[in-house]
């Protein structure tokens, strides 16, 4: 009965994984085809792989510069968002006031306007502050874009932390900062880690602001892809190669964070 | 006694310090642009000459040329609501199933987890293009596979056929965003105490019953948050639809409509009015969801 269950879970798990992964696998395959093979019907599965598409991509733009910008912007904005949100969520969970509920709601309201709706005001603001086409500017926009979800997630996770432990620390004379540093952060670590991971990925994927607020200096990978694909929309093999290069770093991050999630699991077991 | 009192006061002060930075940043960089958009919506602002904008009252909203008299706008509203309801429902149910599977132990789980999360970790601008190509009516692999499996008899124009376009968009969104729901739910599942499961197992309660009686109520707060955020993004859906089907009427969402007005037609005033109404519709949906779902955020720790 138990072995049967494991078998069923395994089959289901792998089936879902295959289904989810198929389009990406297909894209990866296409990246190594010639343009002619890419559009042939029926689709070719076996072919002599070529690297010409990657060479063409590297020729067109400074891939490393775009990647560096993406890394700086996603991790920078995650750090900023967590730095603002961890203290705020701590306060809302452990020292709530009658206004806490409306603060949470008000934060949500900033996610109700479509980005294009505030494009003109943000553009003007950034122009006046000299933040256009800067990494700092994108870090601020992305951190803000994700702040509501970060605060809400942390709020939910912090609520699962036993109050008694923090209260015990308080009785022992811990200041509020010490309470957060020594007790809350380790206790809520799995939650904070998945929130951080979420923020990194959201920032990595963002295309609207990066396209509208950067031109060359601070442009991240999404802008690279967009710039690459619009004039050459029909060159699927090259577009696939460029896309593969753009998502490669996040695949690595995803792999490591997956291990982080497993560590979160053991934490739950210890608790 | 006096010492204790001052300690408490300093605690209250530092508690304020904890939340103020966030509020200040939000007001400056999120609140101010919002107000400015609201102001633009009452003017005839043009992208080329923003300075020359004149106050025109409500004429961007009502009246002969107002937003509310435009059938295309209402078409966009209906499209968006249809898209949001179907995709969020599917994503929640599938995300729950995927999270439960990923939470169980089985051979190769680490690899499967990584593979499942990938679709969501890819920029929409990339995945939308990728799907556009897979759904191509002549060269697309999707038609080829489905015809090979005898599910369809002839190639379908997934993104061009008015009857299919919305389904195609929903399908891609479900593929892309189910991992997000699964990740959120998985994280919640991992923070559950193991002892109630032990107890349920010892008592021989059926796993399905355990799921509905123990697991679901425990992860409900995290699930509600995930659904709210997913719905907020779905109601403002833009890049997926824009890349897959461009400005097609069959799939035009409220955000795509607003962008067309603001950027293509350069009518900042009218576009801002559309954005503002979009904002109000989303706010209304959120309020309804919170009331019906009885989501609580009164600050009480359980």
UniProtKB/TrEMBL annotation, chain A:
The keyword Membrane applies. SUPFAM superfamilies: MetI-like. PROSITE patterns: ABC_TM1. It is found in: Cell membrane. One of its GO terms (cellular component) is plasma membrane. Residues 67-257 form the ABC transmembrane type-1 domain. This is Sorbitol ABC transporter membrane protein /mannitol ABC transporter membrane protein.
Automatic annotation (TrEMBL), chain B:
The keyword ATP-binding does not apply. Pfam families: BPD_transp_1 (PF00528). CDD domains: TM_PBP2. GO terms for cellular component: plasma membrane. It comes from the Bacteria. SUPFAM superfamilies: MetI-like. Residues 77-289 form the ABC transmembrane type-1 domain. Belongs to the binding-protein-dependent transport system permease family. This is Carbohydrate ABC transporter membrane protein 1 (CUT1 family). It comes from Plasticicumulans lactativorans.
């Amino acid at each position: 009965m138990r072995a049967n269950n494991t078998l069923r879970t395994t089959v289901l798990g792998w089936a879902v994984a295959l289904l989810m992964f198929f389009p990406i696998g297909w894209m990866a395959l296409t990246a190594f085809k010639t343009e002619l093979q890419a559009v042939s019907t029926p689709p070719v599965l076996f072919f002599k792989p070529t690297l010409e598409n990657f060479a063409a991509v590297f020729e067109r733009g400074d891939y490393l510069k775009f990647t560096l910008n993406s890394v700086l912007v996603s991790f920078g904005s995650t750090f900023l968002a967590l730095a603002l949100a961890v203290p705020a969520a701590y306060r809302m969970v452990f020292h709530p006031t009658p206004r806490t509920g409306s603060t949470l709601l008000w934060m949500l309201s900033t996610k109700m306007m479509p980005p294009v709706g505030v494009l003109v005001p943000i553009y003007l603001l950034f122009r006046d502050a000299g933040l256009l086409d800067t990494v700092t500017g994108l870090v601020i926009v992305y951190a803000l874009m994700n702040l509501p979800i970060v605060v809400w997630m942390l709020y939910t996770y912090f609520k699962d932390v036993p109050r008694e432990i923090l209260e015990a620390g308080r009785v022992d004379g811990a200041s509020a900062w010490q309470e957060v540093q020594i007790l809350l952060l380790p206790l809520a670590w799995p939650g904070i880690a998945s929130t951080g991971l979420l923020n990194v990925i959201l920032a990595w994927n963002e295309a609207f602001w990066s396209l509208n607020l950067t031109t060359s200096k601070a442009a991240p990978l999404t802008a690279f892809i967009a710039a690459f694909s619009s004039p050459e929309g029909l060159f699927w093999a090259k577009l696939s190669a460029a896309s593969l290069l753009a998502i490669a770093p996040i695949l690595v991050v995803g792999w490591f964070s997956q291990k982080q999630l497993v560590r979160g699991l053991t934490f739950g077991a210890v608790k | 006694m006096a010492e204790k009192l001052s300690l408490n006061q300093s605690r209250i002060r530092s508690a304020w310090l904890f939340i103020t930075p966030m509020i200040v940043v939000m007001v400056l960089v999120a609140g101010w642009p919002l107000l400015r958009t609201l102001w633009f919506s009452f003017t005839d602002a043009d992208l080329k000459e923003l300075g020359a904008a004149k106050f025109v009252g409500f004429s961007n909203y009502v009246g002969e040329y107002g937003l509310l008299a435009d059938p295309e706008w209402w078409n966009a509203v209906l499209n968006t609501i249809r898209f949001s309801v179907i995709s969020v429902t599917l994503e929640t149910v599938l995300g729950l199933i995927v999270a439960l599977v990923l939470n169980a132990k089985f051979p190769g789980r680490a690899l499967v987890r990584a593979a499942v999360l990938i679709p969501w970790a890819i920029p929409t601008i990339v995945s939308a293009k990728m799907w556009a190509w897979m759904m191509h009516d002549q060269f697309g692999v999707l038609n080829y596979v489905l015809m090979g499996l005898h599910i369809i008899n002839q190639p379908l124009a997934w993104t061009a056929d008015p009857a299919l376009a919305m389904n195609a968009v929903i399908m891609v969104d479900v593929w892309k965003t189910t991992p997000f729901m699964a990740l959120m739910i998985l994280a919640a599942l991992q923070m559950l105490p193991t002892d109630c499961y032990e107890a349920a197992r010892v008592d021989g309660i059926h796993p399905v019953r355990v799921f509905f009686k123990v697991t679901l109520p425990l992860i409900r707060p995290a699930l509600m948050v995930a659904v709210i955020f997913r719905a907020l993004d779905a109601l403002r859906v833009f890049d997926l639809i824009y890349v897959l089907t461009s400005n097609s009427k069959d799939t035009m969402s409220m955000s795509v409509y607003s962008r067309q007005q603001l950027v293509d037609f350069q009518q900042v005033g009218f576009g801002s009015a559309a954005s503002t109404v979009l904002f109000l519709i989303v706010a209304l949906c959120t309020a309804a969801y919170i009331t019906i779902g009885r989501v609580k955020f009164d600050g009480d720790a359980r």
